[in-house]
């Protein structure tokens, strides 16, 4: 049996605006999906979801990945697959991409062919299409390569830097599940209704991402935090926020975070905050009183890789 892990992600800046061709920045984070593969009859088991029927809708991405590996790389068309993930599902942290990337990696390892990370990302993307229809590709890119990525109109550029030292990234999962497609559509409808004004808001959002790149390169955390708050305000203006997102943003800032914003599609999902390490305890405690799941996440710079531990159903 071979096993691989792949990281989840957060969008630091630019979600929604990216849909209209403006830039965004994503970061792979150290919460992982682990997938183990062994030769045998066709069987899919998830520690979180239980057995998954290979003919079900849930299994479609995994079956597509197996099919591609079989057609393009001459691998078998039957494997036993075991999935275990610590990434919250459907919260905007790229849980599906991390599962698909770790599956593609461990499948090619088991099959014994030579492959590159590009192969893994491409095959995982085919699985992502089964989940999302037409995803931007940022989730599988971040999960495969790790690190900090600037993306715009389908082009990805790795930023060879990280968050400043002595800085922590806090993720609060509201637990509110939303329909990404619906939020994206409604934001776009408002954009169209606003006409010229909408265009100005999107231009500001694009400019903000460029300024965020400079702040990251300079290690300027207070600037980065302020830009996060402005980004949240723009997302609010476009109707992507819900009261729980705004409330948690306030809660983080009032307890010492330098900045906070919703991350991903919004209207629930996750809120991220940036803070100096010494302030994280107070922020985490304050969030826990709200009964939301809270994670202190570290950047992952490695992306998908093999791992020795197995998963037993
Ligand atoms: N632990 C898991 N086991 C099996 N499938 C998973 C697991 N985590 C995520 N998935 C798959 O990913 C889907 C969630 O993807 P999606 O709605 O895009 O949310 P996210 O933003 O977390 O990627 C789930 O419906 C499921 O098919
Ligand atoms: C809102 C959007 O910008 C990000 C959606 O992020 P997520 O599915 O919540 O991770 C949509 C997209 O980029 O396809």
TrEMBL record:
Gene Ontology terms, MF aspect: ATP binding; magnesium ion binding; mevalonate kinase activity
GO biological process: isopentenyl diphosphate biosynthetic process, mevalonate pathway
Pathway(s) where this gene product acts: Isoprenoid biosynthesis; isopentenyl diphosphate biosynthesis via mevalonate pathway; isopentenyl diphosphate from (R)-mevalonate: step 1/3
Record keywords: ATP-binding, Cytoplasm, Isoprene biosynthesis, Kinase, Lipid biosynthesis, Lipid metabolism, Magnesium, Nucleotide-binding, Transferase
Gene3D superfamilies, per the entry: 3.30.230.10, GHMP kinase, C-terminal domain
EC number(s) reported in the record: 2.7.1.36
GO cellular component terms given for this protein: cytosol
Cofactor: Mg(2+)
GHMP kinase N-terminal domain mapped to chain residues: 67-147
UniProt cross-references to Pfam families, sorted A to Z: GHMP_kinases_C, GHMP_kinases_N
Subcellular location: Cytoplasm
Superkingdom of origin: Archaea
Class of this enzyme: transferase
PROSITE patterns cross-referenced by the UniProt entry: GHMP_KINASES_ATP
Catalytic activity annotation: (R)-mevalonate + ATP = (R)-5-phosphomevalonate + ADP + H(+)
Record: active site: 139
Residue intervals of the GHMP kinase C-terminal domain: 213-288
Family: Belongs to the GHMP kinase family. Mevalonate kinase subfamily.
Classification via NCBIfam families: mevalon_kin
Function: Catalyzes the phosphorylation of (R)-mevalonate (MVA) to (R)-mevalonate 5-phosphate (MVAP). Functions in the mevalonate (MVA) pathway leading to isopentenyl diphosphate (IPP), a key precursor for the biosynthesis of isoprenoid compounds such as archaeal membrane lipids.
PANTHER family: MEVALONATE KINASE (PTHR43290:SF2)
Self-association state and partner proteins as the record states: Homodimer.
Protein's name according to its UniProt entry: Mevalonate kinase
Organism the protein comes from: Desulfurococcus amylolyticus DSM 16532
Gene that produces this protein: mvk
